[in-house]
Amino acid sequence: MNTLWIVILATVVIYAAYNFYAKRIDRDIIKADPKKATPAKMYMDGVDFMPTSRNVLYGYHFKSIAAAGPIVGPITAANIWGWAPALLWLLIGVSFIGWVSDYTAIMVAVRNDGNSLSAISHKLIAPRTRSILFVFIFFYLLLVAGAFMGIMSALMAARPDVPFGILMLGIMGFLAGQMLYKWKMDLIVVTAIVVVVTIAAMVFGPFGATVNPETKAMQWQGPINGAVVAFNGAVNKITGGNAVMTVYDPTNADPRIPAPGADGKRPSTAVYDAETGAIKTMPAYLFWALFILAFSYLAATLPIWRFAQPVNYIGFWITLITIGLSALGAVLAPILGTTAVNAAGETVKVADFALKPLITWGFAYDPTKAWQPLWPMLFVTIACGSISGWHALIGSIGTARQLEYETDGLPVGGGAMFTENTLGLLSLVAVSIVGTGGGAGRFAAGVGTLLTVLFGPGFKTFGTALGFGAFMVIVLTVTQLIFRVMRVTLSEWVGEAVPAFKNMHISTITSMVLTMLLVLTGTWVYLWQLFGAANQLMAALSLLIVTVWLREQKKNPSFALWPTVFMYVTTLAATLVTARNLYATIVPKGGAAAAGAWAMIVIAILLFVTALVIGWDGYNAYQRYAKGGTTQKAPAAAD
Amino acid sequence: MKQTSTQPEKKSFWQAAREFFYGMTGMEFAEHALEMRASLENLFMLGTVGDMLGVPILPPYYSLRLLPYLVPHISTWKRRVLREREFSDEHDYHLEGL
Q1: What ipTM was assigned to the predicted interfaces of this complex?
Q2: Which residue intervals of A36-96 are DSSP H helices?
Q3: Nearest-CA distance from B54 to chain A in Å?
Q4: Which domain holds residue A145?
Q5: Considering the entire predicted model, what is its pTM?
Q6: Number of folded domains in chain A?
Q7: What is the CA radius of gyration of chain B?
């Protein structure tokens, strides 16, 4: 397999799914009609409800849904099961489930006066469905914040070429907000200044670093990375170089665990004991975790324009440039026949896949080890890129209120989902070609290698640094927004009962403390998979709402019903498997890791029970409409 | 943006590409500026027509002097203020790229 085949396969599958399946559903079942007035036209209020061109909305919706999910998911899945299962799920998932979820969430909202999915679920299914959505959203955010915080802290502590770029991102974010909103400078000029400075800071992070010819390890001696190494060393001296605590990762996905050597064994490092599998949490790791929290605190509490929005905007450009150039490299590499030297010192073609197509099916069961069966775990490990519940929520409260014509629903909702799928495929390509390490390291090495196709072999180190930087930026920009949304959700959820949570500082700090507990005691892959389960349960819920709505409208619900059943059963099973993994592999270790594992098991059980309640309510609502029943009363205002 | 049209307008490839790019980049700033303006407009409206709602902020003389400036915005303001709201309607949920 090489990158060209992926491009051809993706083009054929996406073209066929969009033109022969999606368009048929839009025409024959939903019956989108350009003559019907959309909520944007009926309730135009100059802010939320505004008729907008479909091309603008396509870009807006794509930007809204495509972030860290389609990049992190395929990277994680490819490293566990191999690239072939990840590729199949990305293509099949988006063709039969992903676009259905995004598109129908928008269309159901359009046909229900622009109401959000939670309001529609209140009306169509049961009032408590809306309350349960709060639980899902909060734990969804908590889990993804924990997973991202964990991986970012480890990367910042382990890669001295990364922190400088992230620091500059924050400074440029402040500057961009000031230039745009206070100094009223032109957007293009502001973009040019802040994006160029941030990328330059990322690319020059490894400046002066060399590779040890014997061990192949990086020697950080440059002005920037050398200073970061010295700083980390000074911080670690606080405890005399001893670990603050010890955690374990049976999935070996923690960035602090080194990649296996030529003999297939993982070497011990300063923070990893290969004999026991213990990972040392050093003071430098804690420092960078606090740095990220401080960064996110600013984003969560300052006015949006002051920090969160400009940082997000710069992050978007860095991602676009890095991913765009990598995509160009992936297309050109097989045509030009570009070669590179791999970790074993062999010369290989850049376009050829180095990762195994199938590493394991994962069904073999060992009661003491992590169990990662392909079904159901693959389907929650890759969410965005195939199908994601968050998209449906965003689509119903944002895009649906701006749709000018009903017929724009498919190109906007479906089109953006298919486009996001290509982002997931590109991540899969980057992680599958010649690269070393695992997870984010392998992705960054893949990006670095693809960039050598355009800029020559000498760019590998800087390209890899840009890959790490882009990965960090994608994840960090998402994390800062997560804390902001968590703060609002917590205020709304708990604020009525405990008024102190209406205070944004208290709700932000509470969210951060809960996240840190998961970061310090949790296991990255398990957090990610539990987050995936929460996300996919939201997807199942949105598909369930669509199915019930189709039934109520006397339309054929099959195209949404079967994806609902599949996602529902799969994610319930995945929640149980993750709880079992936590119980079997982390709890016996005892200490703080066991406490974190128990916390995650409780969250898993909570998600499982709430999903059962939603399933039962959804089944009853479906039966009610099948027998010609009517909807619930309309939701009360602001309850 | 023709509200009276019942068919989507045909656009050239480059125009569509420009719009797509604007959707990905500038639109979030435009939206946020609109949200900030709407917040100020809500306050302005409340200040001037508040006496009709039982909140006498300005003397009626000044309200009447300002009335011609308010009239064009009354319909959109009314829709904004009177619409039923969900927790997800909070502006903090409108952040792109999550």
Answers
A1: 0.86
A2: 39-42, 54-65, 69-81, 83-93
A3: 21
A4: 3-626
A5: 0.88
A6: 1
A7: 18
